[in-house]
Amino acid sequence: MRRPSHSCNGRSPPSGSDGKAMRVREVMRQALVTVRPDAPARIAADLMKSCQVRHLPVIEDGERLVGILTDRDLEHSAFLPMLARQLKWEERRLSAPRVRDIMTWDVVTVEPDYDLVRAGLLMFERRIGSLPVIEGGRLVGIVTGRDLLEALAAVTGGHAPAELYLG
Questions:
Q1: I need a labelling partner for 30 at 20 to 30 A (CA). Which of 17, 94, 148, 167 fits?
Q2: How far apart are CA 117 and CA 112, in angstroms?
Q3: What is this structure's pTM?
Q4: Which sequence spans correspond to the domains of the chain?
Q5: Residue 165: which pLDDT band, with cuts at 50, 70 and 90?
Q6: Are 57 and 103 in contact (CB under 8 A)?
Q7: Is residue 122 within 8 Å of 110, Cβ to Cβ?
């Protein structure tokens, strides 16, 4: 498990008031809190709580993204003991699941120069709450729905983002 090099909530300030399309790099969080797939799920849950994050990128070999652990994954893991008994899984999975046992493996990602509005649309269409940001095969940031809403609100003068499209 990797601790953040900065505060848990570090991110770049939003911009976009110059009329240009905002890019993910302008609002992504760069002070990442990450976890390894072999870490105990309980430790990952404690880390999410202490850093007040709902999405933990799962990395191997330095910065290579292999999955993401979300608050929803943790909620769903509450069913694990009952399922393990019914499916006759090994005792370790029942009593001490690892991150790899409950994480989301198929992660939707974007690059830093991806258009921020398109990133929001991608999150909406895929029903996901965050997008890990990959550059050169390395995890370099994460953008969440909250980051997106805050950035769009700042650009629109605090108006609801829906007003951009609904008039």
A1: 17
A2: 13
A3: 0.77
A4: 24-166
A5: very low
A6: no
A7: yes
